Predict the 3D structure of the following.
Amino acid sequence: MIRLDRTSTEPLHQQLYRQIRDELRSGSFSDGACRLPSSRALALELGISRLTVNFAFSKLHAEGYLRSKAKSGTFIAHPLPETFLSPIKLSTGRIGRGASEIRPTAKRPLRIADRVVELRDQRVGNQFDLGRTAAGPGVSLIPSVPAVDEFPVAVWERLRAQVLARKGTHLLRYASHLGDPDLRKAIAAYLCDFRAVRCDPEQIVIAAGMQQAMMITAMAVINPGEIAWVEDPGYLQARRAFVLAGAEVVPKPLDDQGLMITRARREPLPKLIYIAPSHQYPLGITMSFQRRQTLLDFARTHDALILEDDYDSEFRFVGPPLPSLQGLDDTGRVIYAGTMSKILFPSLRLGYIVAPDGLVDAMAKIRNAIDQHSSPIDQATLARFITEGFFLSHIKRMRTIYAERRDFFVEQFNALLRDRFTLQVPDAGLNMVAWLKREEDFPTVRRITREIGVRPVPVPLVCIQAKLKPAFVFGFAAWTPAQIRESLVKLASALKTGRV
Amino acid sequence: MSGMSNKKSLLKKRRRRSIIAFEMIRLDRAAAEPLHQQLYRQIRDQLGSGRFLDGASRLPSSRALAADLGISRLTVNLAFSKLHAEGYLRSKAKSGTFVAYPLPESFLSADKSATGRIRRGGPEGHPAAESRVRISDRVKAIPDQRIGKQFDLGATGAGAGISLVPSIPAVDEFPIGVWERLRAQVLVKKGAHLLRYASNRGDPDLRNALAAYLCDFRAARCDPEQIVIVGGMQQAMLISATALLNPGEPAWIEDPCYQQTRRVLTLADARIIPKPLDDEGIVIARSPREPFPKLIYITPSHEFPLGVTMSFQRRTALLDFARAHNAFVFEDDYDAEFRFTGPPLPSLQGIDHSGRVIYAGTMSKILCPSLRLGYIVAPEPLVDSFIKIRSAMDQHSSPIDQATLARFITEGFFLSHIKRMRKLYSDRRDFFIEQFNKLLGDRFTLQVPEAGLNIVAWVKREEDFQVIRRITLDIGVRPSALSFFCIQAKLKPAFVFGFAAWTPAQIRESLVKLASALGRAGIA
């Protein structure tokens, strides 16, 4: 019954393997006594090389379809491998594939845990597919998205092949909960040199991005019901991580120096203070040196810890950065966290925590219980990407590109939309806040942006208690000048026809 | 005359100013580093030295520099374009290329003078906490006594070496070449899209592929919309517990059980209630005052560590109990693919009609642990909650790995690998049993399960346990003591051996070593 097609793209040995396998599976040989023809005989019969037959036979052997008996040849295995894999289909009668009517549904309404209800995440179904919506291709001007098409994938893949060749199967095993030692060293050196962070590689815990860094930190230092301060307006995903860890999130307002350290007299003290001092999201404020000192004093006095989120401080366009809060701290109260999502690419899902000594083991225990560790192959590749200089070179190149795009965005935005918005240009980061000149336009502008697929984030959406004037946060980094212009022109003309 | 010489010397001076710096360039044609890279690096370092900080310094033309250095203009241009891209140089129309001011370093390097005492790496470089950092109660409650280097699983438990630790697959048999080829293909096909933020729920192709596999081979009832991709079994448990339990609410687990289960449930602030096992699986018994569980965690295909396959009767009894008391069952099907005797029972999820079973699986045993990919098949009403938790925990798994796995499955490599490994493990298992009974049959009774990568060996004379334990640690053969997995259960002493990750020769070597060490210690 074997029919080999020499014109097919499927190799001959694969065709032979597949056809023999299917015949064996059809069940006509299941007594186990059937012997196969010798490879020589079969090759002659089919007019193919014996090597081809042997290829097919060895695959069938390896998968357990055949067994050899010394001096008597090759026989069909009994039972066939399918027996061990396919469960008995019970006479429930309704086991089928995919059809919606067979899915069982719970009869009572489901009770979801309180911490999940409190996440304040209203998305359902397809809205969770970030790839398809928020961060997809298209010139949406949404904030916090880096230009991934500038990432040197070819270099990355080459380094990956090198580490795989060098470390081999060791990279396929379970790995360290703390992270790859080479990567921890490389990051420590980078942070000491460029971010004035004070750290030893032993203090670094590799995390699967900023989100997990926040989650691990909250789980390590907050008991259910204890207080975490966050910036208001602030990063929504930080709030969600803390809520999930059982914290009571208390929003704190901002002024032009950063987070305001204010507290009502009876208000309980925070255990954790979350801030993004280099470049606050979404307002772009750089925390002043004085405020940094005050915050450290406050944390020391009241036995609180600070989580410093330094998510995109590499992209600074005016003057030198202030040293990290962690570098100013003499008391081991600052947990410093960074991510590769903006510097390299978001889907890498790698970040790091620089923890005070006493917290490192606790964080490793949490990482072990959450998801063990990040991919050792990705970690080893990143370590090499850093130590061979590609990392710093990429940062510098991207800073130049982003600086140009930023200038272009500011110029075009003001030329096209100056009547309706006041642009607030921060010293750093990949976003910009545009304040509406006439507050009453807000709902119309919001509707129009949605309709035309230009999707800056409305500032009220990221406010908890803060009452700010209406504004939108635009991203500019992921798109070329031509694309930026196209989007802004589209927005300006839609606003004109929408009579804003 | 004097005017002319003045002009000439000015010109010369300007030219020299550009050239002087680059007279220091030394290119090594014998080095492995390409010439353009050497040139780039040396110019960059000279610019970074700070001698050209006024921004008026002009660079020699690429033609002049190439002639000076005796290299091709292309090489110089490559170096220049890299310096350009990184922001070290800027071009002015018709006047040439200048040193950028400020240099990129000034935007990158924080002002260290403010902190005064920054040192690199040394132990005095980082501040010590004044008061001890307070660790949260749930972390203290996690049953995990490890510290420091012990967290490097790669270096200890699961590393290379013939340790016979349980639950380790044979990763050296994984077709990494095929995997990397498929990875290159998906990268070419989907391009930069795979570098962006991705779905919190998981790659749609992967969910489709897994749904098809689970329907065909595990008799799970599922639609791709019910599948949530997770970073391994661990995360599947944590997400489920976080979604269903308020702090302090009870969860049942098997006793003995997988140690990680206890850790996860502790982290989720659950109240853990251990339940004993008999030869049909978890015993559904409750004292009258005991609260009802919200979540029941089980490994029905092959209980860890005892290897019990839950009977069909017990499965239906458990489902009835869950339905009657509004509990959910978490079915951990971590290595059901590796079955060696008779066909598997269908998954619990497949016989459930009330939407009370959360089914979870992992690629750690089938493919390789470091992939960190697994999946949950969730009852429909729970799917959105699970995804919200994933989003708040760590967003999503690598889209490149997910797309590669989807292709690995749809192109048939997955099933073929499972069949090949089952055959290989079956051979190793038979060999292990034969050798073990021959060499150590006097001291242990092997309990051979129908499935899985581990085997329990009961110590025949209970009083030998401590000595044997010490010896195994000494000689680096490290089966887990069964007691390590027990919570309240009082079982006779035993060890759990893994056999899957080592070749027959290695297995024999280890067992011979163990037997002779026990013989020397007089355990006979």
About this structure: The longest strand of chain A covers residues 334-339.
